[in-house]
Amino acid sequence: DIVMTQSPDSLAVSLGERATIDCKSSQNLFYSSDNNNYLAWYQQKQGQPPRLLVEWASTRGSGVPDRFSGSGSETDFTLTITSVQAEDVAVYYCHQFYDTPYTFGQGTTLEI
Amino acid sequence: EVHLVESGGGLVQPGKSLRLSCRASGFTFSRYWMHWIRQAPGKGLVWLARISADGNKKTYIDSGTGRFTIFRDNADNMLYFEMHYLRDEDTAVYFCARSSSAWASLDHWGQGTLVTVS
After folding, report:
1. Beta A10-12 vs A103-104: how paired, if at all?
2. What is the mean pLDDT of residues B16-42?
3. Mind listing the pLDDT tens digit for each residue in B82-112?
4. Sign, CA torsion B51/B56/B60/B65
5. Contact A58, A4 (CB under 8 A)
6. Which pLDDT belongs to residue A34?
7. Any CB–CB contact under 8 A between A51 and chain B?
8. Yes or no, beta carbons of A50 and B106 under 8 Å apart
9. Cα–Cα distance for residue pair A56/A41, rounded to 1 Å
10. Rounded Cα distance, B91 and A42, in Å
11. Across the interface, do A101 and B62 touch by the CB < 8 Å criterion?
12. Cα(A41)–Cα(B54) distance, rounded to whole angstroms?
């Protein structure tokens, strides 16, 4: 199985500051035939289901504010939140859909 | 608007079986792959199974093979998940989610249904 490892486990930032979450995959998630990285990021607020933030490593999901951005390729990926807002308090997960079983990182808790 | 609504959770004894349902609306259900994912209390996300848009292809997490069954009814826009020989460690919120293809992100999730095995 592909192991996804996020860092840090938790992160405290002040309002308006930048937050950066890293995700490392145990296998290359880049598929050369379509030039895509099979990596997504989700946000899960307390008591809610996950919400897709970023897919294909860097494509923002529908309706996602542009302060959220994804980067990286192959085995190393980053979710960046520029100018963190109070409503961004949540747990963030990376997810690989390159191979089954699909797997998720352990989650990173963002606090203000 | 896309809606996925799970049901069927509750308190169940160890060793028993349970069938979860997921009602889809707001999109052409028969064009999407569907998945089940669970989250134990205070823990992370674990993908369990997926089913192709036409229902002919199914994939399970290794630990679920033989104990879990995913199936769908495209005429009724329904997704199902059966679990057998339930164990304490199956206690979790179970989510259904959709993807646009076999290898795509999970772009919409239901609210989840809680299964408690005790």
Report:
1. unpaired
2. 97
3. 999 999 999 999 999 999 999 999 999 999 9
4. positive
5. no
6. 92
7. yes
8. yes
9. 9
10. 22
11. yes
12. 27
pLDDT cut 90: percent of chain B above it: 96
| Contact call for residues B113 and B91 (beta carbons, < 8 A) | no
* Dist CA A70 CA A28 (whole Å): 17
Place of tokens 């064009």: B31
Q: What is the pLDDT of residue B108?
A: 97
Structure tokens at B28: 């052409």
- CA–CA separation, B52 vs B2, rounded Å? 18
Nearest CA in chain A to B44: A106
Residue B54 CB contacts under 8 Å (≥ 6 apart), including other chains: B30, B74
The CA distances from residue A15 to A66, A81, A110, B52, in Å, are 16, 11, 11, 43
- Whether residue A102 lies within 8 A of chain B, CB to CB, comes out as yes
State pLDDT tens for residues A41-78: 999 999 999 999 999 999 999 999 999 999 999 999 99
What are the tokens at B8? 């069927």
Give residue for tokens 């880049």: A30
